[in-house]
Design goal:
This protein has helices spanning about 25-40, 130-145, 155-170, and strands at about 45, 55-60, 75-85, 90-95, 105-110, 110-120, 125-130. It is of the alpha+beta class.
């Protein structure tokens, strides 16, 4: 585990992560994820982005409140998450990623999802997510599967940003 964000090209970003079976050192990991996320001013962070191949991510929408006071603050930990159902309705949103700095692209994702996960107390939670929470959840969940948002772009869009991605890979931290 590192105290900085791993950049595009780091092998751990492409690995399928391992489940968390106990809360051993869980609070330390969660504290580190929130600390790094706050420092980087992001809204979501998955364990692989700090070099930990575990099924955990966090969401904190606090930075969105600066531009839109109506945004609900969501600050949660998701352990061993599963997406059980995707809505057929899709929405587009301009996504970025702390592991792919400087690149923002429109990504289509399901508008609603039904999920299950364990909270910080390892209690099972099942619920339907919508809006920005569903969007961030799907983005961070992809990290646990070794998928980056750029993988969800059309071949033409990928080709257009390929040079930027190669530069990131060459100069990754």
């Amino acid at each position: 585990m590192t105290s900085r964000i791993l950049i595009y090209g780091s092998p751990v970003l492409r690995k399928h992560t391992e489940p968390i079976s106990s809360n051993t050192e869980l609070q330390h990991t969660v504290d580190q994820l929130f600390s790094i996320l706050e420092k980087e001013e992001g809204i979501g962070l998955a364990a692989p982005q700090i070099g930990l191949s575990k099924r955990i991510f966090i969401i904190d929408t606090t930075p969105l409140k600066i531009d839109d006071p109506s945004v609900e603050i969501i600050r949660k930990v998701f352990i061993n998450p599963v997406i059980k159902e995707y809505s057929p309705e899709k929405t587009d949103f301009n996504e970025g990623c702390l592991s792919i700095p400087g690149i923002y692209e429109t990504v289509e994702r399901p508008e609603r999802i039904k999920v299950s996960y364990q909270d910080i107390n390892m209690e099972l939670v099942e619920k339907e997510l919508t809006g920005i929470e569903a969007r961030i959840f799907q983005h961070e969940f992809d990290h646990l599967e070794g998928i980056l948002f750029t993988d969800r772009l059309s071949p033409m869009r990928k080709m257009l940003i390929n040079g930027k991605l190669k530069k990131l890979q060459k100069y990754r931290r």
